[in-house]
Amino acid sequence: MKSDTNTKSAWKIYLFSALIAFAVSYGVIELTKEQTKSTSGVTVVESVPGSRVLYTADNEGNIKPLDFTDTSEKVLDAVVHIKSTQNGTSYGNQGARELPDPFKEFFGDMFKGQSPEGMQSRPRVGTGSGVIINDKGYIVTNNHVIDNADEVEVTLYNNESYKATVIGTDPTTDLALLQIKADNLKTMALVNSDDVEVGEWVLAVGNPLGLNSTVTAGIVSAKARSIHINTDKFAVESFIQTDAAINPGNSGGALVNLDGNLVGINTAIASRTGTYTGYGFAVPSNIVTKVVEDLLKYGNVQRGMLGVTIRTMDSNLAKEKDVDFTKGVWVEQVGEDSGADLAGIEAGDIIVSVNGKETATSPRLQEIIAGKRPGDKVMVTINRNGREKELEVELHNSQGGTDIIKKEKKEVFNLLGADFENLSKDLGKKLDIDGGVQVTKLYPGKIKKETQMREGFIITHIDGKRIKDINDIASLLENKKGGVMLEGVYEDGSKYYYAFGLDS
């Protein structure tokens, strides 16, 4: 009897639920009818509220709708369009970097508009993206976006344009730092990229294919990825891989998390066609932070080095070396008197961690060390013959010492658009020159815009006055107005004069 009562009660509940569902469905249908109208046989919906059908959890476990509108609104103002112009008289397809398939760089970033051989060339224009990182107008982009440019122009999200100054570059990570003089800039904060997780939602923001201020969504597909795209001798590749759509013109743009903070700088794509076919790659924000800090503080990037040749450990390598497999990085060679050598690291050791951070691959080890400077000490855990051992290593610079090699970076040098080094004694003796200053790198600035100077030029006189070191250039030009005459030689002994105006 009790069972019959329970059954009848259950049927009443089911019937009541069915009636409620019917009423709700009917109401929705009628409401939709009211919101639509028919015009020439076409039904037009006047208003449909946006749907949020996916949900995600934040780090505190709070469930919230997965919606990109707030993030997009927050970041668009901080991402800029960059136009690089080269006014030289070069012919052919110079400036293009030949890259191994299937990895192609952003062809939209390369200079275009070359003239046929024998004809005077037109200006070559390339485009890319950049990210404003503080209210002083500093902008991070890729080095290849502005490399070899005579002029760099930055256009904000509101379509205001400014001439940009190149503060510094780092070819080893393919990053560059620009600056514009503007007020009330929207900026983007950088996160600790070590905290970024595979599977996390990210947005790619930039200016692909001439389509300004474009946002695409995806996830972090992998970390510490190397694609062998950077040919610099000391190249550091430990990319964040994403399936967010990235195309030519996105180069230098932002990869952000759902909080609107910078995760990485979009740099390359894996493609057989030159456009998006699945994956893009971004320089992690930790590397970006280190490069920016060094350029602003020292004028160049301070790269700490272990002094080892390495390979990622896998089963094949373990078989080749006849050792038990251990997850980590195999030490192939150790440089004599390098930091690793002095600390006791040997060929055949397997580096398993640095400062407690696991080093499962060579790119990950590179990324961790790239965050350090010469003179920094790191705790390296190695596996040697099956036993782990901790060694303290003092990192060296590229010249084998532990000192910070600071570059003079005065305001006038930014205006000139050049990096300088005091003439070496050996080269001075070879050319029979007592002192001088060599131009080691040219950026967009007065020299590139108004002269045909090439890198390697040795300045011996300015306006007829003898130049012996970098300080002489600074003292002569810092408050200079009007025309300037540079006199000097190239390494082959050929003598040249270059003139330009500082107030033009």
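That was protein one. Protein two is written in the same sequence-then-structure order:
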Amino acid sequence: MVQDKTAVPVPQRPAAGDPAAGPAAGLGRVPADGPVSGPAGALPERPVAVAADGPPGVEDPPGVEDPPPASRLALPSRVAGAVAGGLLMFLAFPPLGLWFLAPPGMTLAVLAVRGTRPRRGAWLGLLAGSALLLPGLHWVSPIGADAWLGLVAMESVFYAAWGAGTALVTRLPLWPLWSAALWVAAEWARGRFPFGGFPWARVAFSQGESVFTPYAALGGAPLVSFAVALCGGLLALAAVRSFPALRSITASRPITSSGPPASPGPRPAGGARRGRALALPLVLPLAGALAVPAAALAVPRYGDEGRNVTVGVIQGNVPGRGMHPLGDEPAVVLGNHTRMLHQMARDVREGRTPRPDLVVLPENSTDIDPLSDEFARNEIDAAVKDVGVPVLVGAVVRIGESNRATRSIVWDPVTGPGAYYDKQQLVPFGEFTPLKGLVLALFERASLVGRQSVAGTRDGDLKLGPVTVGAINCYEVAFDGIVGDTARTGATPLVVQTNNATYALTNLPPQQLAMSQLRAVEHNRAVITSAITGISAYVTPSGSIAWRTGELVPAMNVLTVPVRTAETVATRVGALPEWALILVGAGAVAAAWRRRAPRAGRPVNREDDQQVGDA
């Protein structure tokens, strides 16, 4: 029984065997309404926890023992569990890609906050989030240690909110469901606030090619995160039911026995049945934890539609590193990419490579605006005419006197630059400066942003040769709405133009590639990534990487890519599964908050607060 922690003075007990003692003698109980004034048992009684270090001369009742060593280790164990859980989740992400560590990482994070008050749950959640994000977002450090640590601190706040909410909902039946739904809600909030959000390091993005990946075709990245979190929560429930010491550590109140230990005796006739009944609470959550990934095998797969397109991909590389990747000499990056276009044209003419239907260059494939600079325009135009097919050029173009746009331009070999897509989801402090006056006053390097970018207003469907591609610009691949809206236009394949030059050889390029893998499955589309310094890649509609480059090297290839038009459930329903899970999590928090408030006249006995999952 889980008893109330408040110690109540206990009158001196009658001697054992005294008839006046009544049946309650020696059990540490007092009448609910005060001292006994009538026959034993005439008034209702309530359980009392008697402190082992109580008043001198008062013995502890049988069954009330010193707190076990585990209880003294509760807080250090929670701290260690939160940190270990965050680190295991980090290891699930590329470049290590140990995706199977994400569920046990979630298990440890849930166990760390289970049974605590919301305030303690919040800072334990903060610890788990920091342990995940400190190494997970280390790629930000080339900008500065202050930028990296500040971003981690800001993003970890969302995990603190998750920890506080999970501390509440784990008091409810079926709590693995509610804690998983709250995880989705925390990731949703991270992807929107502040300054447009920062959804990097969502648990779903550690599952680019895993047993959980097929869920992306049903509910997108949110459903994948939910499945991983649910699996981890069920493992946590199984662990609590398996290890009494662990249950004591994670319970919201100390667990004490309500009587003397049972003396060993002969096994009752129904012992085997009782043993099976006792094993069932352990078997069920374990079976559920296995069933969650196994059920992904039942998600419908989409077959080939018998149509292909040949795509040329170019990775031209840059001369600089870190905060100045384009180098000090203008037109070097432009020359790297036009030179490789000419090389591709020669290879086609000489039969070394098939003729592409279209070619994709990366974001910032020219370091000079080709729409306002005649030299840059002529260089690109000559290269496109040489290769003889439409080319998707990535450029930064001027907008008015003080703004710019990150633009994907369809460059036709006959008509020149035509239709375009402007990046909609801009990078805060990279493409625009929030709180500009304050930030520029505090950080000199913030001036490197220069002209402020203007967000585009239309989806990225662009007619390019024989197909309509879905243009997605770099950072946007992390945002469900941008990719989903583009896929819903019918565009196929999806094309991700990216510039990761500042973050070359960090964990950003492989993390971004894992996002492309998930998007491929989510929308039943091949995904082509053209990166200025790598990693350029071709991801099949099933999420497999069929081709990829190294980093900081020039590279090119001509690929045969399937054209898929069938829409997945995730494409059709959009954000509905995510909103449903957010509402479930919010409802669970509301129910737990209402339940924690004591009702007037309610007995102190709190058996209904036991920590199971336990419908």
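DSSP finds 16 helices and 15 strands in the chain. Keep this in mind for the problem set.
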